[in-house]
Amino acid sequence: MNFHKDHKLLVGTSFLGFLFLSILIAVLPAIQLQQVEPLPAMQPLSALEREGLRIYVEENCMACHTQQVRNIEMDKAWGSRPSLASDYYFSKVRMDVWRQSPSLLGSERTGPDLTNAGLRQPGKEWHLLHLFNPRTVVKESIMPSYPWLFEIKKTEAVLSSDTKVAVPEKYLPNPGHTVVASEKALALVAYLQSLKQAELPGPADREFIPSSRKTKTSEDSGDLGLDGQTLYMQNCAACHQSDGSGLTGAFPPLAGSAIVKNDDPSLLIQIILEGFDARTEYGVMQGFGDILSDEEIAAIANHERKSWGNNAKPVSIEEVRNIREYVKQLNQ
Fold it and tell me: Could you tell me which residues belong to the region Disordered (predicted)?
């Protein structure tokens, strides 16, 4: 028998080779990836968050935003560790009869990664403003607005049960009107707030591949060796703006703030650590005590106290450490 001239044998062998390689390279790894368990700290999505996930897919948010923290140093800004298959356990349920679980990983990084959006930006007010018109909170944003997720009502027609959005006057489509969030908008925000990277049980064994580039230091960080301006831009500027001007009705200004400029930085440090509820005039600020180290908080405070016309004495790491201990005692 001449193998090279037997067409049936050639086709059969090629087909079996193709089938074997397909199973080995595609099918078995796919089956293995399905055999994952959620991390102990993870919680199932609520009904509202699940509806928000559906709207997230419906609006095609993954066209611009990823949910995958790569194991490279530049992705440290988006998560405390590289992503795992377990991180997507509760989002792999079928959307409906015809649609499989959505692909949330994304491939375009036009906008920031959303893996840790719930920790990085937990405030509902910020997300609503950002969805209505991203330029209200991030002046340089190229993200499209989503006005169909909101309703414009005459101010006198707004109900007490309505969720009002504190849109600055220059962004209001009509004077004397109020922007009200729809159920869709509230569901989408609930889903975005739920995006929090769960801690790994035991010692972390997944680290980022370090970059060969050195991190520059900033003069406003004193001898802390940290760039306070970069840390501020990563954690604070989305609300308080890059120039410290804040946003009327939503986020207070830091430029000229009596709290920021005070000779005693204790209240400023405490607010950064545990957040602040300013709903009488502004929104609710999250605390950064569980996210940032004492050195990072001191660097941010120093940047705020020496920028935009502020001129106050530097904050030391020891002062931050003492206030952190004080806050812990208060919460016990």
Answer: 203-223
The whole domain housing 87 covers: 47-194
**pTM of the entire predicted model:** 0.70
Q: H-helix or E-strand containing 231? A: helix 228-235
The number of C-alpha atoms within 13 Å of 272 and in the hemisphere containing its C-beta is: 31
Burial of 18 (0-12, 13-18, 19+ CB in 10 A): exposed
pLDDT of the residue at 278: 62
**Where residue 180 sits, what CATH number does that domain have?**
1.10.760.10
- The number of folded domains in the chain is 2
Residues 71-126 pLDDT 10s: 888 888 888 889 988 899 888 777 677 777 778 888 888 889 999 999 888 888 88
Characterize 245-272 residue by residue with b for buried, 16 or more Cβ atoms within 10 angstroms of its Cβ, and e for exposed. ebbebbbbbbbebebbbeeebeebbbbb
- Gap between the Cα atoms of 180 and 167, Å rounded: 10
pLDDT in tens, 310-330: 988 988 899 989 988 888 887
